[in-house]
What does this fold into?
Amino acid sequence: MSEDHLAWLAQAGLTPSVHRTLVELDEFLWSGSFDPVLMELVRLRAAQLLGVEGELARRTPAALTAGLDETLVAELPQWPSSSRFDERTRAAIGWSEQWLLDVRGITDADAARLQELFAPDELAALTMARAVRSQRPEEDPVCGCTRPMAVPPCSNTRRS
It folds into this structure.
């Protein structure tokens, strides 16, 4: 996987060893994903919400190999109501959106639902991928440096 999408890390003042470690972690999380298409949809939905054009244009090789469907990508803004998204995908995207908008809004019921739908190793991979992606300055609502959303969140995503 090309690390061009992580070039911003080199300019963020990180030491070379920290930068290299984050690039390796990102590559590991995406190249060995339990479900490359689901992970890609989660990544792309976050990029839509944040208006991160470079991430919207990029596709991970694993997702392409696994058969990522661009018509499904085009339907991401309608994920809550589109019949093209199954229960697992809806749960993952909804949880990721909530994390992005306000991680404190994730409830015990949300966590229990994810635990019903995902094996522990799958949930760990999903969580780590979301956490690593949240280290990007444009994805950190806590620090106040989140870019304005380009796409409004779906109606069933909670905000606090």
